[in-house]
Amino acid sequence: MLVGMPPPRNPPDRPLPPELGPASSHGYNCRCVARHFGLDPAPYGELPACSLSERQYRKLLLEAGEVQDEAKRLAVTRNVVDAQRKYARMREIAQRLDRTDLEVAAVSDLATLCYSAGDLRNARQCAEAVLDVFKVSAVAIVHFGQYAEARMIEGSREVAERVLISLATEEGDVAKARELIAGQRRRAAFRKEAGPEQYPPELLDVHGVDELELRIFDVRVQIAAGDFAGARTAIEEILAALDALAENDEVRERVVHQQAMVRAERARIHQAGGEDAEARADLLRLTARHPGSPVAAKVGIGLAEARALAGDFPGAVAAIVTARDELAAAGLTGDVAEASHALGSLLLHAGDVAQARAQFEHARTIRTANGDGPGLRLVDTALARCAAAEGDWATAEHHATRARESARSSGDWADLLHTDFVAASIGFARGEDLPAVLDLLLPLTLAAAEYRFEFAAPQARTAWARDVAGPAMELLMALLAKLGEQRLSAELIERTCAVGAYTGVEERSLDLTGTLPTLEVGPAAEGLPLAALGSVTSSLPLRLAPPPALRWSPSSPMELEPWLRLAAERYRLPRPAADTVETWPAAKPGRETFLLRFADAGHTFLTWRTTEDLDTVHTHPIDFALVATARQCLDAASPTPHEGESVADAVRRSLGEDAFGSFAGEQRLARVLALNLLPADLVARLRRAAAGGNRPFLRIQPSPSLAGVPWGLLALPDRRADRVLEIDEIGFCFDGDERVLDVADVSLLAPVAIPRRPSSADGPPVYLLDPRIPGQSAFGELGSVLGKQDATSPLIRYLDQRLAGGPVLPTAERGLDLVRRTDTDRRLLAELLAGPCSRLVFVGHVSRVRDEYGAQTALHLSCSAELPGTAAPIGAHRPFTAADLALSEVDTMPARVALVGCASASDFGLAEPFGVLLAAVAAGAGLVAATVWALPTSAAVPGADPMSELVIAVDTALAGDDPVTELCAWQRSRLARWRETPGPATSPVFWAPLTCLDATDDGKTWVR
């Protein structure tokens, strides 16, 4: 007898599909259907459902619905244990009935429950299980023609996929999130086309509320991809659409919830953009418009934390208490626990340990009742910190150990990293058995640093580095200093500096010829006009490559290597096989080469050694206060505009008496920088090396905090003070005015982990000089950098000489034809670099079109907005970014490149330093000349042309045998002129920022 839904009319007309044989469940009553059609049910297996009466069947089906309703109610309150019990019962009923639709409904709800409780591992497993079962069930549906069931399991697939969308977005896997959203839209369109005859109303999205929820997911993906402008626009459109639906009784509850979600996202955008006042206003409006709603209350907690950071501690505490009361009134016990935890964290930060512990214990009681495993681990780590703050080490270690055991048993390795870090922090603070702390802390720090590279989006990588890897590194460096482990400290610094290039670009996807590129994007983006491609390509997942295996010296491997193996084993760290890369360049014959690498980890750490003595380690911590002082002095003197400052005002400030406008002001800056950044042993060794008659090389890889330092300009101290000096006392440490440039040649050191392509074959030089930018006036922000040139100008006469000596690219008859062209766009660049060329000289604007991430640093060529690229257009112009270069078909760069533009060497100042400077190196450039701050144009000094002098010096050096030596010699001549006749025209503001990134001797570095 068949019970339940009616069977299909026609028997299967094909053999049993192989997918159905091993499956434990095929769909509703598959075995009974087989018997109904006179088929052998043995291959399908018999289930109790086949012997149920109609009455028994209906009774169980009714119970399943009631159990699901109760489970959802428990899930809303975050009562995880009881909700899971209910879903387990629902699955038992589903198996008795052989109802896959009930099974996947339970498991998809579990995925949502686990995600909301922070159990991301089980959330993913449940969601992926739903999709796996869906595939098998779909085969059974087709085999038996049970198409009614397809309609019943469709909603569960959508729920499971939305969990995966949220997970992908959090992890920065923007491409995956977009793919899943596009799939949901395709299926929604199919269901609408099929109509109510095929699908129930709840799957047809009659009012468009489901689509609005997908658009909210789109906004989150845009935020993850860094497209804040697009997200802002979308949010306003979504809010307008929701306002139009607000009076519809059928969807009012969902609309109110979605309005709160969208307003919370807008607040996040404001916060990410540093618009704290706007973010706070959004949060206040949200709580005012949705009083008593769970979303508003939860946002109120975030608002309270922001108030605490702004100094209003009493107001923050009151806001959290109010929000907690609202959540308790709504029965949301899990969120009440989170509120208590947030309140405890504020109190602990304020030093009120007893009150903080009481709040954590309150959260613990709720989370224990709810079976919230991840939440209980957070409570244990918080209670461990409370005990450590009072010196109760036994209790602190008890809580930390319990949290670690829970994390290990859960299989959540991110949680294990966190709990191990808390245990290590307690061990460090206790100060006993520091080697045991090292055994715990060093592997977890290495693992935390490596896991960063698992994220697809730079925002996610940066957040992980800030919140997880960074604090671990800070603690580890302090521990190594206590233990006197200079070699391990130096290796950690070198590994931190070994930044890789962006990966995943082997398949070139951006055609610079102006034709529509083939992109890995979902169907929702198909058919976009060419001008709209900026928003698509900006979200392409350029993953940052982790450092490869490194070698310390010819006679010594890395001491970190066994620790890395331990980290991989303990934290399941992915370690793909890779060639070993040497961390030192080839030495110049007869000239000692100094290798300096800086890394920021709370304080800034320097490791230095020489190619003559690679195994002798010199490691120095530089107090963050000293670095902050150095940066403050440099920022005050640099012509790079401050926030809200015009370019003209920045140049005037930089050429003032206290900055680069007077010799006394500039010398004072050079001395402050040197005293704060150059250790005494390095200065002594430099002078000793220079005394031999062969000028040494100083090769530097700065940390982000020191990216703007003009290293050659720094003065060399003759002695150190035994106390803190006032600014007017620093002359005590100097007998004369000897600078780094006086004793050494200086260049930047490329990160060793950047893979290189071979450079292009030798040929004519390529000049891209002051390109005309579409839609920009010659006197505007993106106007001319060289100013008006004529046949008598020094630069034009120099270019005429170059033309007389042989061909140049692009083809020109006179020097004037190479300046201010309108065709120097990305298409011409690709065309010119496709053939042999000896060097590329770009002079123009360089900027960061989006903050923080190197891939969005850009050259401003003559590119119209219609050309494809990863940057949003600026009016009629689209900048050419480092991501464009990485994704384009520009396979090689010439061996020598000049990027003469504002802060074109600023890659090292970014959270991810793969900007135009290092992108050129990855494309084959062995040497790149660039500048560390914004270059004033010659208009700043009427009657002189320092910009042309700089361009001529750079091109002359790149055409010579040893560009680094020649450019440093030129800078020494400028320094001598500055000493003799200080004034605006001779100021270091024009020539000191010039530097070379020299990778020509890094021949052992890996090649793509």
Describe this structure in words.
The chain has 1008 residues and is of the alpha/beta class. Residues 513-539 and 1003-1008 have low confidence and may be disordered. Among the domains are: 31-154, no CATH class; 564-696 and 704-749, no CATH class; 765-998, Rossmann fold (3-Layer(aba) Sandwich), CATH 3.40.50. Helix 13 runs antiparallel to helix 14, helix 14 runs parallel beside helix 16 (373-389) and helix 17 (393-410) runs antiparallel to helix 18. It is built from 35 helices and 18 strands. Residues 1-20 have a biased composition (Pro residues). This is CHAT domain-containing protein. Residues 1-21 are annotated as: Disordered.
Could you give a short description of this structure?
By secondary structure, this protein is of the alpha/beta class. 51% of the residues lie in helices and 8% in strands.
List keywords for this structure.
1008 residues; alpha/beta; Rossmann fold; ten-stranded mixed beta sheet; 18 strands; CHAT domain-containing protein; TPR-like_helical_dom_sf
